[in-house]
Write a structure and sequence with these properties.
Strand content: 35-45%
Helix content: under 10%
Shape: globular
Mean pLDDT: 86
CATH architecture of the largest domain: Sandwich
Order of helices and strands: EEEEEEEEEEEEEEEEEEEEEEEH
Number of strands: 23
Largest sheet: 8 strands, antiparallel
Distance between the termini: 36 Å
CATH topology of the largest domain: Jelly Rolls
Radius of gyration: 21 Å
Low-confidence stretches: 5-11, 37-43
Number of helices: 1
Amino acid sequence: MATITIGSGITVESGISIATSSATLKLSLDANTYDNQTTGVQQNVSGTSDNTGFFPYGWPAYSAIQPGWTCVETGAVVTVVDGVNHVIVTVGTPFVSGTSYTFTGENSWIDSVANIPFILHNGVTLSGSGGNSLSFTTASSQYASSTVGVGTLNTWSIEAWHYYTGTNTAGGPCILTELWPQSTNQINYALGSLSLYTPVVQAGLYHDATWYASPSGVTLTAGNWYQIVGTYDGAAMKVYINNSLAGSTAVTYSSTSGNQGIFLMKRWDTAGAGATEYWGGNLGIVKIYEGALNAEEITYNWNANKSRFGL
């Protein structure tokens, strides 16, 4: 390879290659940046086109909203509550005029790419395991949820750094999944026990009443940290465990996102018996990409984070 000059002062010598990725990071959660904001559930704050919102006169519960709380839909933080004039002021993503907003009663884990808040339900706690991680206990029905997703992804990757405790409930709990049912009745992406028997780990999508997923023989051993990556490139559904390809299945189907939310550590169902199925353990890092990570990119992420998790 000849020496190449890209621009003033930038030269690529022989033997050095430049690689580009077709995968774009759409969502990133890291327990190292979790700020443990405590909030409370309240509805019907009507937004203006800026950072000011109004709650209705006669609404008895307005005083429950406090400075420091987080708006579920935008991630903006409340700085002022004026009970006399029925006004709240926030800092962050502005409200959209005429839209109703919610302030939630659980702690929030905020995505650093799109500022999507994930609500931590039923007492999820911060743990020092893996540097920092969030601990999910199945006996307490603990999980996390967002009210929006990242849109439809024709190809995608999901990466989770996960400590497995072996406490999954029976059925098909997931580490990450879109909600179902929703407007499309499809699930664009998921990582979990999609064959409905835990503790199998699969990557997959749900289309036309069928799961199209990576092989169902991949299991975890309790008491260990794992890098788990699921990818879909339009031709194959793959799952990688600790930087090694653990299974691949030909899949050419596609699905459309309902974009109504994402569950962490819970099955995809929003109602019925399946809604009580949970995946136990810790999450240190969770990422969603548009595009399929290749083996080299997965290795790069592995090398960047493995020491944090003792791997």
